[in-house]
């Protein structure tokens, strides 16, 4: 277990050359707009819809995998973010859990690289600055066998936010190990 390299990329998650891409899905895994719609279209809507239907939904904060079908990625990890309801309803913990559970599922699959969109910051209304803090904070403090994590920002402001947070937060030392790695 170690700390994967974290890379910020501005662009479209559906074209990322990684082992697994994360989808910001809904509890029914029924497809939708935003990044969910883009992933369904690029992967092949009919096949992905059928694979999602077989999973029986997914609660907020959890993650489940399907094949990537026509994506460059071998797997899609569907996670369900919190609907923002003011911040006092456990939204932060649910969002952190999305990142942790997606990493855990990716590891179980044997993935070495993963790409995340800015989960919950679109239709689900999570304030983008706070969401970026949760994303970066959780990823920096979760040990994993993965080698690379891509934070895929769909716009410049999101990419800048991630870069600023990553520059500001030096990596914590390895548990019991040497600092600076
Ligand atoms: N690549 C990367 N990021 C993208 C892409 C893309 N192709 N398309 C959209 N995004 C970004 C948006 O800019 C936003 O910052 O993904 C982020 C998440 O927004 P949403 O896709 O709206 O996801 P979320 O807020 O988690 O809402 C989930 O929306 O599409 C439905 O079925 C989905 O009901 C669920 C809800």
Automatic annotation (TrEMBL):
One of its GO terms (molecular function) is O-acetyl-ADP-ribose deacetylase activity. Keywords: Hydrolase. It is an enzyme of class 3 (hydrolase). Pfam families: Macro. It comes from the Bacteria. Residues 1-170 form the Macro domain. Its EC number is 3.1.1.106. PANTHER family: GANGLIOSIDE INDUCED DIFFERENTIATION ASSOCIATED PROTEIN 2-RELATED, MACRO DOMAIN-CONTAINING PROTEIN. This is O-acetyl-ADP-ribose deacetylase. The lineage of its organism: Bacteria, Bacillati, Actinomycetota, Acidimicrobiia, Acidimicrobiales.
């Amino acid at each position: 277990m170690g700390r994967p390299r974290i890379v910020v990329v501005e662009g479209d998650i559906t074209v990322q050359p990684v082992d697994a891409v994360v989808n910001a899905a809904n509890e029914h895994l029924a497809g939708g707009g935003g990044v969910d719609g883009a992933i369904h279209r690029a992967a092949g809507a009919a096949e992905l819809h059928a694979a999602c239907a077989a999973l029986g939904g997914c609660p907020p904060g959890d993650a489940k995998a399907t094949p990537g079908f026509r994506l460059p990625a071998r797997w899609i990890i569907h996670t369900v973010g919190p609907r923002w309801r003011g911040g006092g309803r456990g939204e932060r913990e649910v969002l952190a859990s999305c990142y942790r559970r997606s990493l855990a599922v990716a590891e179980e699959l044997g993935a070495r690289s993963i790409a995340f969109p800015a989960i919950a910051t679109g239709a689900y209304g999570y304030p983008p600055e706070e969401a970026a803090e949760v994303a970066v904070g959780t990823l920096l403090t979760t040990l994993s066998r993965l080698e690379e994590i891509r934070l895929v920002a769909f716009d410049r402001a999101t990419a800048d936010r991630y870069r600023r947070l990553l520059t500001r937060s030096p990596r914590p030392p390895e548990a019991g190990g040497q600092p600076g790695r």
